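Ticket #4471: structure export looks truncated?
Reporter: QA, pipeline team
Priority: medium

Steps to reproduce: submit the single chain below to the structure queue and open the exported record.
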Amino acid sequence: MGNNQLYTIYEQQVIAAYDARRVGHGQTCEETMAVLRPIMETGRGTDIDHGGCHDLRTYDGKSADQVIIEAWGMMVPRAPTAEDSDDYHERYANTVFTLFSDVSDHEFGWE
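Actual output as written to the record:
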């Protein structure tokens, strides 16, 4: 079983930084990374686990993982709506997880 509490802390910090407009609002890449890299580094070499996710959202509806994906220059697909098929919901969730893992696992050594 992974470290759920560490994921909860990560999620809270990313959402708070975004909502405080410290990332994702016209800052340079360097400014954004100066805020997000230390948050992501806390998970290095740990068994951080999405089981600690509380589904927190930014003021405009993004998850912490979506904020990270966008900050690293990747495109997040359109979020599903109630009208979308179950298949689209599942594909969306899998895509976000894969994109996020590209950053968290490969760049920051999350396990």
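Status: closed, not a bug. The export was complete when the record was re-opened. Leaving a note from the reviewer for reference: The chain has a mean pLDDT of 91.
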